[in-house]
Amino acid sequence: MSLNSSAGRTAAKFAAIFMLVILIPGELAAQGQPVKTASHLPVALWFIGAGVLGLVLAYGIMRNRQRTRAERQITEQATKDLYGRESRKS
After folding, report:
1. Cα(67)–Cα(61) distance, integer angstroms
2. Phi, psi values for residue 30, rounded to 5°
3. What's the whole-model pTM score?
4. Domain-wise residue ranges, the chain
5. Measured between alpha carbons, how far is 8 from 14 in angstroms, rounded to an integer?
6. C-alpha–C-alpha distance, residues 20 and 59, integer Å
């Protein structure tokens, strides 16, 4: 029973793909000469910006891992003090 349903599903998939190949025209590309739409400078700037951001993040992560235990405790205490001041204001 499962062989028939599997064969039926395979046949249905084949028929659907065959119909798509027949019905869809072969040349769907735009007609005419290529059009230059704009400068590539903005795209290049996006990639350069993403690269710089990645480098800055990597530098920050590496620098943060090199902190001593005392530096981490100072940072934690400063954060707690700041949160305490903000909670007293509101």
Report:
1. 10
2. -65, 145
3. 0.44
4. 55-90
5. 10
6. 52
